[in-house]
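Revision sheet: structure tokens.
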Amino acid sequence: MDINHAYNYCIKLLSIKDRTTAELRKKLKEKMFPDDIIGETLNKLTDYGYINDERFTENWIKSKANQSGISKKYMYNKLLQKGIEKELIDNVFKKINIDDYVSAFIFAQKKIKLLNDDDKTKKNKLFTILARKGYNIELCKKVIKDIFESDDSYQ
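Predicted:
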């Protein structure tokens, strides 16, 4: 196995979707490429601009930030799983403003319409749903309080 084979394999993977350096390293290891070939290939891809973990992180966060029900904590943990370093994630989050409250509120408004329970049960279920999505306890409580205060149709 040579560097051209590894390089072409990575280009094929990148043509499907953007990937992190760690994801490509893992894919190459699964194909039993030697470490020196993996290193050379990843350096070549980085030099040509095909892989850039900072760009990947920014794009990934921007795409997820517009989806309701996705918390900053969820995004952070997913990026760690993708092999992005904590420091890089922190730096990107400093550049991109993410409002967990808005995301959680919009998500909760959608979910509450699906619940056919009494108020107490609705509140408990909403709290559980939001907490599982990675929102902190105080934010969950605030969102639920605000939803029930904002519109009598939920009650």
